């Protein structure tokens, strides 16, 4: 009989707690919805906070190569989509030639943490839309390595903040341009 009463009390307490929690859940959901509808950037932040938002803004990449790009020779380009932020500090320290030298071992080591889009671009080329990995919106960081002949074009570039990126390959370096305004 005593055991039965204690179970009854426990059940009553649990029901009482749920009655208190329900209004809190409703208030939380209403607050979250108002953030989503506010439209001043907080919606994206709110989605990120609960793990539903994208970590980068990139939606497209176009590429244009001038007639004298890379001193009239093809240039190798690798776009790295990094899904584990702990890998970024290891890779961002590399320049283009270092990346391409270590690429076979790094891609084996981090095959689950990165996707690589590799291009070999000849002078006077135009690629209107580079095919991005299916999971590119989940990338924590996006890096670009180029294998230019001169050091001006061998630095690593961080691409996550671009929305519609245009890469222009010039004689001794490259330019990164935001297309479509903002």
Describe it for me?
The structure is a single chain. This protein is of the alpha+beta class and 182 residues long. The protein folds into two domains: 2-49; 60-178, Type VI secretion system, lipoprotein SciN (Immunoglobulin-like), CATH 2.60.40.4150. Helix content is 35%, strand content 24%. The chain has a four-stranded mixed beta sheet with strand order 4-1-7-8, with no helix packed on it. It has a four-stranded antiparallel beta sheet with strand order 3-2-5-6, with helices on one face.
Note the overall shape: globular
How large is the radius of gyration? 25 Å
| Widest sheet, order of strands | 4-1-7-8
Largest sheet: 4 strands, mixed
Strand segment tally: 8
Q: H/E order of the elements?
A: HHEEHHEEEEEE
- Can you name the CATH architecture of the largest domain? Sandwich
* Class based on secondary structure composition and strand pairing: alpha+beta
CATH class of the largest domain: Mainly Beta
* Domain unit count: 2
- Residues in β-strands, percent: 15-25%
Secondary structure layout plus pairing:
Elements: H1 2-38, H2 42-49, E1 60-65, E2 75-82, H3 88-91, H4 96-109, E3 114-121, E4 126-127, E5 141-146, E6 157-158, E7 164-169, E8 174-178
Parallel strand pairs: 1-7
Antiparallel strand pairs: 1-4, 2-3, 2-5, 5-6, 7-8
Helix pairs in contact: 1-2
């Amino acid at each position: 009989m005593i055991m039965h009463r204690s179970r009854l009390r426990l059940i009553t307490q649990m029901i009482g707690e749920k009655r208190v929690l329900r209004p809190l859940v409703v208030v939380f959901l209403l607050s979250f919805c108002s953030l989503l509808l506010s439209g001043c950037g907080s919606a994206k932040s709110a989605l990120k906070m609960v793990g539903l938002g994208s970590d980068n803004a990139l939606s497209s990449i176009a590429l244009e190569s001038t007639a004298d790009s890379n001193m009239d020779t093809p240039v190798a380009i690798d776009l790295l989509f990094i899904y584990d932020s702990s890998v970024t500090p290891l890779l961002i320290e590399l320049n283009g030639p270092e990346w391409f030298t270590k690429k076979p071992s790094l891609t084996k080591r981090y095959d689950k943490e990165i996707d690589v889009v590799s291009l070999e671009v000849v002078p006077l080329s135009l690629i209107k839309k580079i095919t991005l990995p299916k999971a590119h919106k989940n990338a924590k960081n996006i890096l670009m390595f180029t294998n230019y002949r001169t050091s001006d074009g061998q630095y690593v570039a961080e691409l996550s903040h671009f929305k519609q990126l245009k890469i222009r390959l010039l004689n001794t370096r490259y330019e990164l341009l935001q297309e479509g305004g903002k």
